[in-house]
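Review this fold:
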Amino acid sequence: MKARHSWIRTHLRYLALALPFWVIPTAAVAEDVTLFDVDFNGPPHSLNETPEIGPTLHHISEMRFGSPTVVSEYGDLKERPLLFRGRAGYDQIGFQIPTGYAKYRIEYEAVTGNLKNSQFGFSIHLDTPQVRVFQLHGGNNRSYRFPFPEKELPHPQLWEDGKKSHYVIEVDLGRNEWRAWQDGVHLFTAPFNATKLQKVRFTLSSVYLGAAEDLSIVAAFDNLKITANDDFQPGPPSSLTLNGTGNPEGLVVSWPAVTLAGSYRIYRGESEKFGEARLLGETSETAFTDTTIPYDRSHTYWVTSVRKNVESATATHASGVRKRIPPSGLTLSRGTRSDGIAASWISGTPTSPIRILRSESNAYDGASLLAEVSGSFYLDTTAVAGRTYYYWIMPAWMEVPPEAISQGSGQRTFPPVEGLVITLDETSGTFRLEWASVAGAGHYTVYRSNQAHFAGAVAIGKVGEGFFTDHPPLSGSEVYYWVIPGSPGTSDFAAVQGSRVSLPARPDLWGEDASGSLVGKGITNPSGAGQSLTMAARNKRSMFGKVGIGMLGSGDSRISLSAPAGNRHYKTAYYQTGNVTAAATTGRLTTPAGEEAPPLEAVVTTQRRNARTFAKTRSFALPIRGMSVVPGVGGDLVILRTTALRR
């Protein structure tokens, strides 16, 4: 008989080895672990006292509310049960549950008194931390389970006051459900939807807020036993996703989480036969990156779930290819650097040298190999400033560039001009800019601003030589110039490469001397406030000449007019126009549109009142009010013409 049994065992072993590995369950039957075994009939609990709190399986974990007390007996519970009473608050004790198990079983005995037809309920709470509740509801003499909506349980007649009942509640986290029995009668099976059980609490409390205290309402509770079991074999992942592109490290295998799985094992093979696959690794995550897979060849992956070294009975599989990824995102500097054209890109896979090809046309056929580099950056210092170049990049492993090969154009800007010098011609009130020529530059653009930064500068001219003359309308502040070299086909966006020089603006005031030449008076008015100027007549009857006043802002100016003795009165007219350049040297005042400017005020005549007062030279103050311009645009030109008349 023993020999026959040995033969059967041997052949069963061979039969098992012949079956596919992934369909053989590897789970073993696990034994129950007792977490709590509480009997209030004796130590550590004392009669007529609240139960003892402690770390052993015979203690409770916490006294949460009220003061449930150990009594000698109640109803059919004869051996010192724990008694809860219908207090205004409520009585509650708790048991801290070790997590990590797949199944839990809770058994206890209970007797109620005067609970039916009351506003109280006796319940067991299961914290996950969300709360599931099984309750004996006194208000309508029914049993319920929660969470909401309430689910009334069958067989409510089984619960009667004064009758001892034996309750069993099982929690199966592997199946995500819980079940309950009363005296061997199945009450319900419902979804549990949790991955752990943290705490078990027993409570006698008011079902509705505000119920009056009634100490005659009681619930006696005893012989609690809570056990745990890990007799659970997880299932495999429900699906696999393979991403063979977009990750430079390798092919990515991912899957949805499996309930209670502690880890996952990943297998790979070149065929769809699991027996030919090899184990790649094990992870607690729900994704795995295969860095060893060759490129451009199809492979099949299997993933199993593992819990405490118990592997799922089946594996989920899918096939995929790790594809090569060429570099992408080529970016080229376009006139922002004078030291060359900078190229950068996003590295592809596998990492390999990058070939850079260049041409002066946008046709790849005419491109030539410029360099072969590692990394993702290259500076082309051989590019000629002002020319546009086209570039293509491709990895060394690529034989023929595809249509989607990264390409683009770039341009090297000219270096800044050197030796920029600005001089002021006081006679004409103009600035002359001179600078050294830049090799290859076909033109130079001159920018001007009354600010020290380029953001507000305005292009005022483009010349082909190294000098420029400017008569700025700005006054009362410094003038800033930028000179930027360029060539046909280029733009002046590389302002930071320009050379800048600043000089004080030309004088505010100027006039005509006896010969009619325009001369500056050397008076500035940077604040825009009022200012004064004294002009003397050249003879007894003459025109004072033309006086130009450029102002930034607004204010009052006082013009003091003095004349030789004997003059009877003075006739004065003054005008204002914007940005006039030629009118100061002519007898006719015009606006920029070529129209004659009207006087701002009527002619003012000042007469002598006392003949003797003109025996000496006398000055008269003539106010000019309200002159204003837009700051940063240019000063307005005010022409003052005064005639001294003889009696």
